[in-house]
Amino acid sequence: MYNLEALKIDLKGLQQDVTSFEYDLDDAYFSAIEATEVSGGNVHVTAEVRRYAAFFEVKIGFEGTVRVPCDRCLDEMEQPVRSEHRLIAKFGTEESEDDDVVVVDENEGMLDTAWLIYEYVALAIPVRHVHAPGKCNTAMMQALEELSTDRSRDVESDGEIDSRWSALLKLKENKL
Could you tell me if 120 and 63 are in contact, meaning their C-beta atoms sit under 8 angstroms apart? Predict the structure, then answer.
């Protein structure tokens, strides 16, 4: 079990300088965070926190791979991820509506980066993630091909398209 407490940064204890943190996230982290999009992975994270008089500048960068389902065959695949993000943390009681500003309770003084890091990793995953050509599950690809062939045969044999589909085709062609 991954200790998510290790990803909390004690802002009150930081000096005026830059303080660096490094984390190695693995399957245990993604399981502990209860990630829905990512089933596991290995990601190296670096965080730099610079303290100013009224706020903290936090830079989070990461690089590694995560396991996600292939959009085509649904088997797990390794997806490389890499990104850098910057945010501002400040003490206060009100929540900020700005996505790049995090308000930390002054009494607690701890910035919890566990969920922030997961969100940044999830944002780094491409919208479409598929295996390289020829690497998809062959049984699934054959089943998809058969279904596609069966459907096209049904349309050809009937000679007529379902009225719902023809209405959608009209929308597509801007004829409606």
Answer: no
